[in-house]
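Write out the bound-state structure for flavin-adenine dinucleotide.
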Amino acid sequence: VDFHDSPNDAAFRREARAWLDAHAQRRRGGAAGLSALMSERGDDPQFLQRSRAWQRVVAEGGWGAIIWPTAYGGRDASMSQLFVWGQETARYDVPPNVCSIGLRLIGPTLIAHGTPEQKTRYLPAMLRGEDVWCQLWSEPNAGSDLASLQTRAERTPSGVWILNGQKVWTSGAHCSDLGLIIVRTDPGVPKHNGISCFVVDMRCRGISVRPLRQMTGGANFNEVFFDDVVVPQENPVGDVNDGWRFALTTLMNELYGAAALDVTDLVRPVAELARKTGALDDTLLRQGLADAYARAKLITLTSYGA
Ligand SMILES: Cc1cc2nc3c(=O)[nH]c(=O)nc-3n(C[C@H](O)[C@H](O)[C@H](O)COP(=O)(O)OP(=O)(O)OC[C@H]3O[C@@H](n4cnc5c(N)ncnc54)[C@H](O)[C@@H]3O)c2cc1C
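---
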């Protein structure tokens, strides 16, 4: 594999760097390139506010969602350009992106399957960082076997839907305005057929979000409980009972987005700290760091092929 920029990508890199030079400060050190929701500050309100504000600046500059089609404010960027943008932004002191789940996973799903009204209503606000989104897929008994999900939605005679059930591992639910959820709408058919996809307003009555505190102290994932949550009749995305297709669109976009992750950035600050404190003189610690770097590099290279 040739990791050098093609002439097109080199031009793209120059353009990205020139824009970033004009709008941000070069980074002096520290981890970069992580999604805000994966960082240990994913539940710090000031940090989240800064992240939303930066997304607005980026969107105004035309860099807010580069993989989206130009018609929706994107740049129709290629996979390699997504890498280039990720590498370039990692050089600057900009907040990690709290809007990444919306921009990477949910935006492309709405572009592919949403109604014109849904696109107009949700995409611009998502792009500008005004609405943070979460992805409500996994459940306690539906992880790898996602189609076993049991959260259900029932249509009332008035046309609205009532949601009941539980999701888990929902990144960023604690700071999300909106969510895309898959639920069971027909329990009487084979499991992949009775699933539907809805937009839910995370501030609705009946939704409780419980953060899951990690051993690192951060709390980026959540349990989310739905107790008779009323969802308007215009909120299904695509046809009712055809939601599995949309779930797959989102999961494919997740693979695409994962390819932009350079996890070697996680190891570098530790190495820098070890150098500063003199700990690097310890042979075993040096070997441990080299091992961690090699593993991180492998993950990064694997994600190039995702
Ligand atoms: C960083 C991160 C962020 C996440 N964010 C979100 C999010 O925002 N929204 C969301 O909905 N979910 C999210 N998830 C959840 C993620 O999608 C689930 O972890 C995933 O679906 C796996 O489910 P599980 O953890 O329940 O594992 P399980 O399905 O219980 O699997 C546990 C283990 O058993 C193995 N296994 C399972 N089935 C079989 C089988 N039939 N044969 C052999 N081995 C098997 C698996 O490979 C795995 O090793 C996130 C997860 C991570 C790690």
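---
Residues 33-37 have pLDDT under 50 and may be disordered.
The longest helix spans residues 283-304.
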